[in-house]
Design brief:
The protein has 452 residues and is mainly α. Among the domains are: 2-83, no CATH class; 303-415, no CATH class. It has helices at residues 2-20, 22-36, 43-71, 74-83, 85-123, 126-136, 142-149, 172-183, 188-205, 209-221, 250-271, 281-287, 291-299, 304-309, 317-331, 335-348, 361-375, 382-395, 411-436, and strands at residues 311-312, 315-316, 354-355, 406-407. The strands form two sheets. Strands 1-2 form a two-stranded antiparallel ribbon. A two-stranded parallel sheet has the order 3-4.
Length: 452
């Protein structure tokens, strides 16, 4: 009898220990999964982990009850399961604390290594730049590192503190030296990624045109064929490794140059021996601010007609230019130059009657002008008013929108419009016919039936 009691007691203790460890073991496994994967940053992974954890938490007491009934030890099984909640919470807290300590240690090491790169860049020590980059190779690509040290303000990943008073971390001349040091011995795609990051930072600093010319020389050195007239990324591209300085396409290169340096930047581009691809044409036009800049593009063989018709953000380039003119007239220093540029576009082949979504260039400009007038806080300057009137006369001959002569709509849209016009015309004719048709004559009286 005593033996049976001892066996039962031992079995109850085994059941208690087993279920006392159940929750902590599951919590340990899920915690390790959370810190070892992207569950903390990826919403899909996090939701999956949350569902699994909730399912395990709800299923554990039921499994303990079943096991306890089978072992004839329901109390120890359920009691051990519930008591295991406390050590499970301790396990989660310990794993989280260890992960946080590891993160802080890693961040401290990254900051120290990045500070070494920053210091070498400020001193202009190219060998020091390459040595510091070697210690950061596991965390950052060269383009991303240059993007970080060239930024103003706190870096997005907090690896660099914000400079005092908003000062630049690295002077522009030293940033060039750092870029050249980082580019050494890199594959062509990675060298161009570094130069893309450098161009982004030059644009943000609004540097003088001389820095752009230096950048163009570096780009020429990074090309496979030095005589190439195409300023474009080598294929296949490097992956998205430049952080905030990543550029999606070749058009971004032209956009940054044109938006930052305008006519001077485009002339420097041409003087460096480069032309413009089809996708680079509209951004180049968007950066022009004078007729002289347009003349430089045309002299370099720029295909203006194709660029003006190229779709840009669901619009044609010329319509987009017309829509932006009122804002640029308000912001620009020389409104008359924008008026002269608009007239030059028309002389060079821009089509007044070309429509987009039913609007001519005249209507697009006037709509934008009304919108800008509603947002303007004060009366425009006389030079701005005169320039706007010149543009209106150029885009709206005889004071009204010209008759559409061509369309940028698709063939399908044209067919729908034609069908709608035909239906409207048929309905109009039918209504007109019914209103003008003569009234029917009354029927003639029937002859009287002769009496018999």
């Amino acid at each position: 009898m005593d033996g049976t009691v001892d066996r039962t007691a031992r079995q109850r203790r085994r059941v208690l220990r087993r279920w006392l460890l159940a929750y902590p073991v599951v919590a340990l496994a899920l915690s390790i999964y959370a810190v070892a994967t992207s569950a903390r940053t990826d919403m899909g992974e996090f939701l999956l982990l949350a569902v699994v954890a909730a399912g395990a938490a709800l299923a554990m007491p039921l499994l303990a009850l079943i096991d306890g009934a089978r072992s004839r030890a329901i109390g120890p099984a359920v009691g051990g399961c519930l008591l295991g909640v406390v050590p499970a919470l301790l396990v989660v807290a310990c794993v989280t604390a260890a992960d946080q300590a590891y993160f802080e240690h890693t961040m401290k090491m990254q900051r120290e290594r990045m500070a070494g790169l920053l210091d070498a860049s400020v001193r202009g020590d190219r060998d020091g730049v390459r040595a510091a980059m070697a210690t950061l190779a596991d965390e950052y690509d060269p383009a991303h590192a240059l993007c970080l040290i060239g930024a103003a303000g706190r870096s997005q990943d907090w690896v660099l503190p914000e400079p005092d008073g908003g000062a630049l971390r690295v002077p522009t001349a030293r940033l060039f030296d750092a870029a050249e040091a980082l580019m050494q011995d890199l594959p062509r795609a990675q060298r161009q990624a570094v130069l893309g990051a450098l161009l982004v930072r030059l644009s943000e600093r609004n540097e003088a045109i001389g820095y752009l010319r230096g950048w163009l020389r570096l780009w020429r050195d990074a090309q496979a064929e030095r005589a190439s007239r195409t300023l474009a990324f080598a294929q296949p591209r490097a992956d998205d490794s430049a952080g905030d300085c990543h550029l999606d396409s070749d058009a971004d290169l032209a956009r940054i140059v044109a938006d930052t340096w305008h006519d001077d930047g485009l002339r420097a581009w041409i003087a460096a021996g480069y032309g413009f691809s089809a996708e680079q044409g509209p951004p180049a036009l968007d950066g022009l601010r004078s007729e002289a800049g347009l003349d430089a593009l045309l002299a370099a063989g720029f295909d203006l007609r194709a660029a003006l018709r190229r779709p840009v953000a669901n619009n044609e380039a010329m319509h987009q230019l017309a829509a932006r003119l009122p804002l640029r007239l308000d912001q620009g220093d020389d409104p008359a130059a924008l008026a002269g540029l608009t007239e030059a576009y028309l002389r060079a082949g821009a089509e007044l009657g070309r429509t987009r979504y039913g609007k001519t260039l005249c209507e697009t400009f006037r709509d934008a002008e009304r919108s800008q007038a509603a947002d303007r806080a004060s009366a425009p300057a006389a030079a701005r008013t005169t320039a706007a009137e010149r543009i209106d006369r150029a885009l709206c001959p005889q004071g009204r929108p010209p008759a559409p002569t061509s369309s940028s709509t698709t063939a399908y849209e044209d067919s729908l419009a034609a069908a709608s016009d035909a239906a409207s015309e048929a309905a109009r004719r039918e209504a007109l016919g019914s209103s003008q048709s003569p009234s029917p004559e009354p029927p003639a009286p029937e002859p009287a039936t002769p009496a018999h």
